[in-house]
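Attaching the record inline, Q. Sequence:
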Amino acid sequence: MDIETALEWAAQRHSAVLITIRSNGRPQSSDIAYAVTDGVIKISVTGDRAKTRNLEHDPRAVVHITSPDTWSYISFEGDVELSPIAASPDDDTVAELATLLRDVQGKDHPGWDEFNQAMVDDQRLVIRFTPSKASGQIH
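Structure, as predicted:
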């Protein structure tokens, strides 16, 4: 399947499953919210999650997206880049997380100062997943 067509379909949704590889080689899956930006699937996570630790030692992942009626689906294979953990309310990671929130929710946060500090307190970062292959069916 053409990656561009698959990304256009995926950009209309915001819920998926992220599949990473544990240190023992077995898969680990997580329900996630995401947004597509310039061909990259972006996901907000905390630094202490299993998916984050898995991606630190092996950047390969799958993002699987299913339509609500389960008739259409896309599985993207690819590699990730992890942003730095948010360290200050005004750093680049927090700015990227704010943009990601707007893209997923389609609206602004009601209190940006509170949001920015929460990103630092939660030790949040952004997974930047770049697909190299797409498979599935779109109806």
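The chain has a mean pLDDT of 97. The domain at 3-137 is CATH 2.30.110.10 (Pnp Oxidase; Chain A).

More tomorrow.
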